[in-house]
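User: Hello, can you help with two protein structures?

Assistant: Certainly.
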Amino acid sequence: MRGAASVDTGAAFLVSFGIFAPAYPIRLVPSVQTADPDHPPLAGAWKTLLLLTFPIQYLLVHWFTEHPDWIERGYLPYVFRPVTGLLRLLLGWIPLSVGQLLLAGFIFWACYRLGRFLSRLFRRQLRWEAVLFSLLPAAVLIYILYMVLWGLCYHRVPLATRLQLDTGQVTQAELVRLAERLTEQTRRARRRGDPSAYPKVHPEVLYERAHLGFAQLARRQSGFEYRLTSLKTGLGASLLSYLNIAGFYLPLTGEGVVNPYVHPQRLPFVITHEMAHQLGYASEEEANYLGYLACRHHPDPLFRYAGFYGMLFYTLETIALVDPVAYERLLARVDPAIMQERAAEIRFWQRYYLPIQAVTTGWLYDRFLKLNGQASGVQSYGQVVELLVGEMRREQVMLPGKK
């Protein structure tokens, strides 16, 4: 465009001085700067605004992480719950996981953009300052969205504090007593149901009934009300199994996604665990504990059995780390039918084992949790045992004759 304009303007200059008279009329073409489709002016303004305001945004987020009381009193009731409730209202009725579809679309888009980037880099058509100006605002936007939709939930007042549970210095004797108690509770829960019917229950039926446990729990303790169900069967269940994923929560869409291949005796607990995340309990041990409580108070025997089943083996695995002899002794006391189901569950996950799991659900997820303030990383799942011991201690204190 600039070349054409300079030629026509030069011709007009020659005509004005009578140097030559063209045999055709001259049309002046204005010089216009063509907008870059990859960087429209409005997008540039938003990028600049994001970068300039990032220090303020970061300081505000950091201030909230240092003040858990404000997260409880301000962020949760006025930001997290209204936003996630709206997301579940808008997307909960859709049978497919919208979040997974968006994630797949984002991955394809990112691969396309990466291909263009590498192509232009190879042809030396990129300036590094332009690359940074494109990437940094995107990183800022992702960070802010993540913290607003989910990240701040990792910095809540601990559930043990709110429930007044003493979780300090768990002794080996307490672990053994807890395991013995859970062994008996799991055995009774299994016998009160119909284990042969459990594998035939469709996940969709469990989704529809899962909220009943939270309804019962909310009658005993405020803050556990669950409304607007948005639970989805995960797309690509085989892939989820190979990645060792039983379920996960998608903050961008507020959906709880469940792997339908999970063992039937474990599946109800996985569902209530993801529902606990939807209520803003980001810590894995707290989501485990709340999922267990919802199962324990559920009117359906399958949910009750799944809750006790999950906690029993978390406790036994903890004991195995500190006292292998006691672990073997306690394991021998577990109902043989329950041990058969446990063995079937282990065989299932072994069938889908891949070495890459050490990176995906091992190192990467461990780093993710630690970056979000969970010092124990993936080991935090098993720390639900501390909450169980705290509950057991509280019950003992409340017994008649105890102080």
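That covers the first. Now for the second protein you mentioned:
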Amino acid sequence: MVIMQRALWAVMGLMGLAPAAFGHGVQIQFSYNTSTGKIESREIISTTAAPGTDTDPYPTGFRPHTSLSDFKRVYVMPLVDQNLGAGQGWYVQPTPVKTTGALGGATAYPTGPGLTYQFDSSALAGGLAGTNFAFSGSAGLFNLSGRRFAYQFTTGLKKYDAGSSSFGDAGTAQAQMFTGSGGAFTGTTQTAISSDAPDGTLMALSTITNGTSTNPHSSLGFRLLGDGASSSSALADGVYVIGMTVTSYANLPSTTTLDPSSGVGTSDPFYYVMFKGISQDQAAAWASDFAAGNGIGASQIQAVPEPGVLGLAGVAGLMALVRRSRRGECA
């Protein structure tokens, strides 16, 4: 069992991350289910058609945007201490460093993930084949033109407690999300901070004006605030989880102000499991237990940066064996 655990650590280990310029980064792919009336969260994917080349900042482990990815609701990602335009802090970092090419030893995208809602350019006139999202002129599917997506925290920040083997209150720490690819807060930056008593605050992305873009996506940043307010405050080592949803909204007539009564397709909650000072395999094991406790199957968990040697199914199998072994030892 020890050998198996070490093998898992070897393929899922994290490398040191160097500061780099912001870009769009990897994105969670979303689709719309016309039968249920819900937006559905899928894999974190690359927003390039050919990830993994030496000059491309995305690693080969990410699916390109040219295919529809599998459903996911739990995303396991590291927290990395970085001094970005938005300030010093512990940022969610789903994109690993590149070991070759122009970006060798660094990453172009120090935080994320963002949001993307299509994957192909084969059906630009109306509905986009396979995604169940549609654009201007499509009568059969939901029309996104003139709409905007908004995120909403559904929980306060939770932290894994080994004593109770469950996630509990994280004390004063909370999560913050913010818009933009530049990493610096400006006069138009949208931000939202989680709360132990979620108040329904929405963080709205830009209005969709181009219904025929081949690869529309919005950039987002996520970080943890140790005292609930300042990114530079101390943050304890551990595994944290935060829940959120995505909804599509319209603006109020003749304005750029979101109409809160126009929400359509609110997704089921999806969760970021974020770890600091803890191995990725341990975080993923606790994430698997968390998912099971919330009725989410193992196939809907994605760990990023993704392992470069084993497929997700193999990693999930190894994690399951590790958990069973630990339970057997406890018994």
